[in-house]
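Quick entry between incubations.
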Amino acid sequence: MKHDHNTSSPETVAKSSSRRGFMGVAAAGMAGILLAPGVRLIEIAQAAPTAGSASAGASSKVRWGMLIDSDKCASGCTDCVTACNTENGLSGGTLPTDSQWIRKIEIKEIRTGKTQSLPMMCQHCAEPPCVDVCPTGASFKRADGIVLVDKHICIGCRYCVMACPYKARSFVHEPVHNQKTDVPRGMGTVEGCTMCVHKVDKGEMPACVTACSDAGHGAILFGDLNNPESEIAKRVASYPSRQIREDLHLNTGVRYSGI
Amino acid sequence: MSRRTWLSFVRLWQALLLGVFLAVCLPAAAQTTVVPSGTSQGLGPLVTKARGGQCVDDPVFMRRNHMALLKHQRDDTMHGGVRNGKYSLKACVACHASEASQSVSAEAGDFCQSCHTYAAVKIDCFGCHASKPPAAGAQAALAQPQVKP
Amino acid sequence: MKKDKAMKYVLRPLKDTPQGFYLLLGGLSVLLALGLGAVWHMEHNGHIVTGMNNQIVWGLPHVFAVFLVVAASGALNVASMASVFGKTEFKPLAPLSGVLAIALLVGGLMVLMLDLGRPDRLIVAMTHFNFKSIFALNIFLYSGFVGFVVAYLWTMMEHRMNRFTPLAGLFAFLWRMALTTGTGSIFGFLVARQAYDSALLAPLFIAISLSYGLAVFIWVLMLASQGSARPLGDGLMARLARLQVIFIAAGFYFVLVYHLTNMYFTKHHDFERFILLDGGIYTAMFWLGQIVLGTLLPLVLLLAPGIGAMRRRIAASAGLVILGGFAQMYVTIIGGQAFGLVLFPGYQVSSSFFDGVTASYHPSLPELLLGLGGVAVVGLIVMLALKVMGFLPERLDDAALDMAPVQATPAAA
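Done. Structure below.
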């Protein structure tokens, strides 16, 4: 009798085919388990609405800017700072670790002794170095020129704080409580002046501008630099004004006159 | 020790461990979150009812998809400046804040916190976002959430 | 052929390690645990528990991290010399060089990532990229470096792949140049600050990477040789000493050009005065740490004849270069921030946000523990690698490495 080199008996052949069958079913099941969430997600993605409702968003036709008249700014007055702190839920503290979105700077020319006072905040540059260096793209420039931090993707690396020529950004060193509804801010992310974007989007003006004009100083003018009929555009076209650190060619949205 | 003795020893340990495990887990699972209103619903989370009439969408749909909706909405708001979208977080908080704590995540029984504690998913939102609706005076300025007809 | 002769070496894992090996391993583990504890403390309480503030946002952890990353690139140099520059006598040391490079990079990266304000968002960092940012590019450069060096190590240790070693070595070398340029450019691309707006920072970092990397390599090699009773030859040590001299000099050249150029620019005079004269701790660190201890003293030790045993001098120089490297990173990173921004040249400035004043910074314990935790990771990776796999040649003496015997000098011990 010839030796049957195939040593599989009928039982083993049957067992191995049922094993193969089991593997096939198991593989199909695994594939199903793996793919099903994807199918579900496609369903969700197609079902979820893409845009919000009909409120107009930011548009590149507009470029928001400010003109600060240092001659109208009194040394020692901090109305704009107080208003910003209240509006945005900042502590107002001045420890080295406290966030300051706007600050009053007193300058004195060394040679002549002439003193000036002016508020300094994020300059909302058209070519922001902070946007260039952010690894995740959290620091971004909106279509209408306002430079913001998307705190959902900010990882808190503080590179933008290193890069900003104006020291506009602060890092949040402690847990934050009782945030303002319209101004989310949290520990471990970087923040800075938002030009009160939550108010600008409603057609209002930043808190610092309102406070300064309500108090009668009128040192800060806010408006659309792209609209030749706006007060600010007419003013910068008629009177000298400058950007701080203009040699960096950042094309800031905040301009100063009187310095 | 013989193999049979060893095996019965092992079996004894397995039984003991299983017993301890069940003794710890079952009572814990049977516990319900303590909330001011409502009765226990067994092992699921207890969710405080919202103060508004009807949610912007079907509850089952919202339960499944609220993260994706919020994520889309946040990009529209941040980058596009769209602030009164249907799925605005501000509107969610205003509607769902509990009466007792005035918040959606401060207490264990609050709207967001109850399900999230049950599902053991940490909420990241309220590290930055306010979990309480704005003060009463500002309530009027809030955009009304759109309700599905 | 001489080339073939040099290739006959056997890599062996460490065996019969003395008790000191396990003591060191244990000590490094404790250090790592302390570092992770510090991270937990920082993450739960915020950076308020550190000495960093809104004026000095990058502190001691970044000093450690940048040093480790820069040394990582330089540590690969011994392997690059063997595979890319034809110095085949260094081939037996190439695996150690590769694993040390990986270990240093991993340690540095770990410190960097754990110091983030939101380290839980690492996935975000790896899925959202702004490719104009050198940080984003560095993410690819760093991970690519690990990949390329792993491939390079594989070609060295898998006999069938040995013929690909020069190609793998070339890729690793080029990638390493890009990586260190990227690290230097983290600072060099910052136009805002007086300390950093200079294209010179990229080549400066390349030069100091060679110096720091070789110093760390020398220390690890000497430690490994002691721990495994595989004595090092004088010829090899003399070669490494000569390389160290060249690299220290190269680093010093770039520092010299950087400062001389700054002293030509009137607009940088205040900054130069700050670093060189009246910057307090930064001036002390610059002159004493970076120049005397980090540059002059090692050069004297390595070049002057007849000062004690050569072996001890080489070890001491390497240690001093490492110390000087930390001082240099401290002056560069923290001193650069402490000087502050100049918004109104020619004006005296004051504000509630510390404009116009030198920022103050006091390193805190959590920062130090985090930095040391990174160093511990480096040690653990290297020690475990040496113990488990063959990264060190069986014999390290000159005859085995086919190293030219050292000339008879009065200094040779």
